[in-house]
Write a structure and sequence with these properties.
The protein is an alpha+beta fold. It has three domains: 4-110, Beta-Lactamase; 125-223, Beta-Lactamase, CATH 3.30.450.90; 229-438, P-loop containing nucleotide triphosphate hydrolases (Rossmann fold, 3-Layer(aba) Sandwich). The chain has helices spanning 4-13, 44-54, 92-97, 125-134, 167-175, 180-189, 229-232, 260-274, 309-316, 332-343, 357-366, 370-383, 411-418, 425-431, 440-449, 455-461, 465-474; strands spanning 18-22, 26-31, 34-41, 61-67, 70-79, 82-89, 139-143, 149-152, 155-158, 191-198, 202-211, 214-223, 248-253, 278-283, 296-301, 323-326, 347-352, 384-394, 400-408. A hairpin with a 3-residue loop joins strand 10 (191-198) and strand 11 (202-211). It is elongated and about 90 Å long.
Amino acid sequence: MPQIDRFIDFMVKQQAEKFIVPSGRPCIIERGGTAMPVQQQLTEPQIQSIVNEIAPPGTLGRVPYECGMGRFEVLVEGNDGNLQLTIAPWNEAAAAAVPLPPPPPGAPATAATGQLGGTKRIKHMDEMFRLIKEMSGSDIHLSSNEQPVFRIHGTMKRLPEYEVSSADHLETILKMIMPERNKREYDETHDTDFAYEIPGVARYRCNIFADRYGIGAVFRLIPSEVLSAEQLGIAGEKWMDLCWLSKGLVVVTGPTGSGKSTTLAGMMDYVNKNRDDHVITIEDPIEFVHRNIKCLINQRQVHEHTDSFSKALRAALREDPDIILVGEMRDLETIELAIHAAETGHLVFGTLHTTTAPSTVDRIIDQFPPTQQEQIRVMLSEALKGVIAQVLVKTVDGKRAAAHEVLLIDPASANLIREGKTFQLISQMQIGKSRGCITMNDALLKLVQEGRVEAKEAYVKAVDKIGMKQLFEAKNIKLDMEGMGQG
């Protein structure tokens, strides 16, 4: 605990307006306009030690300080070995009239050094939520002892106009929006997830966590209106025919933040507009909200409407669904139930965090004990109908575009899965281009040839970098390797 907290605690308990700490003389508290001495007396080095905990060495002037007891200002005065501190509650009007002292050259602007960045302060999370929408960003990052950081078109950008947030202040504004259940969960486990919505603006997927500096949070913006397949540019893709299946398993996969949820929402929107079916979604949390158009859609949130993915999926089989969307196939039981549902006459959509279509097949099989894997290969070869692996790449205009690797299962691919020869699925995808299959390298190459993505960006996002480089050489596309090594 910083030493200054002891003085603030005493000042608050005494209901004083000021606590004055001069060097070499007794401390003074001011209460009701009366100055009263306190027995404690500090030397100049002791006072300097206090200052060094909240501000860069050599700081003079007004320093904002925040702790569990509130927000205060510390006035540092004096020179030549004669320092004095004056501690008082934060005064917004006085703060506006007297600017912060400039930090010494090279001093970092962090709450730990007393410099609170810009002049704006987060008063409620709705302010951040509206701002990220206005700036066309995707994620908000809040950390203790740091300014807000937004991810905009894939790039992290600090907001210099905002103060650094202390852990206490950040916890206060985050708990304003946390449901009671999530407050309890965070207090017990230091992690919690939930959804938050501003009607007419957007929904937000929220994750609150603790790190070495205190509380932190990441928020993903989810548009209030679901982006249609046409808006996403996927309506004309051959793999959208998967939406017309009556049964089977379709997996959308990719790394975190690759837009899997957006693509799945676009597919569900297409189903909603073109089919007359009953759709059940199981999500954690509910992200895109679907209105009933032609379909009846029931959306269930894990920990809110059901205990787990597996329990909700088991129950869904008794709820007369035609289509089931599983937000995340994260454990063996959920994967097993999804395959079973696909086998028994339901169309099941799910997601995994794999990077390629063939590795998705391997990941599903590897979830099971070795003694069951042969049986699962047979079941998966019959149930799996398609895998769409997705990655987001930066475009030349500073935005982002999705590149899709597509594996559509035909009898030959099903046979490779059944026989455990998934390494040959890449060849099968190349053979099946006319059916709509495409490898990730070919998808990235297409974006480069269209002039939408630079070759360097495509190379960085490619999993098979050697193959990507060979494709560029074959097409006489120059790859500038400067600044990224020769990997």
